[in-house]
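Morning!

This is the sequence you dropped in the shared folder:
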Amino acid sequence: MQRPEAWPRPHPGEGAAAAQAGGPAPPARAREPSGLRYYDDTFPSMKEQMVFEKNVFNKTSRTESEIAFFGGMTIVYKNSIDLFLYVVGSSYENELMLMSVLTCLFESLNHMLRKNVEKRWLLENMDGAFLVLDEIVDGGVILESDPQQVIQKVNFRADDGGLTEQSVAQVLQSAKEQIKWSLLK
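The structure's back. Tokens below.
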């Protein structure tokens, strides 16, 4: 059984492998240059993956529907300005479950990117997009489909990173105020 997969897709003609994200690759596979991950060996070579991606994009870019069946796979997708998000599963996968993963991905990115879900903002915040995707899918296994839970976990992880520029500024401001009050006494 092929595991579901999610990845943002760029608009054609805007870079060869731009704005692609996926869950972590299995340990046995080498990292693909594009950042895209496949969770099984349905497309063992990069050339086969690119042909598949091009065919899927050509089939879905001109329609307004949200689901497609292609090559024995179920594909749910959503576009936003110049970005296409896809979740792909086997023909046996439940379309509603795949759609809930896609909705969770889109809503989480929408929140993280402050309602600017487009290629430029995604590329500038790719680390956050990877965190979002890691919270939703791990190795092809769906972990979470509630965007609020994903946002909460990603925010917790981001806050866990130690001192940020904002927290350093807050510490400096607090120190200034303490010095000022101690000099006034």
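Headline: The helical segments are 46-60, 95-112, 119-124, 126-136, 147-159, 165-184.

More detail when I'm at my desk.
O.
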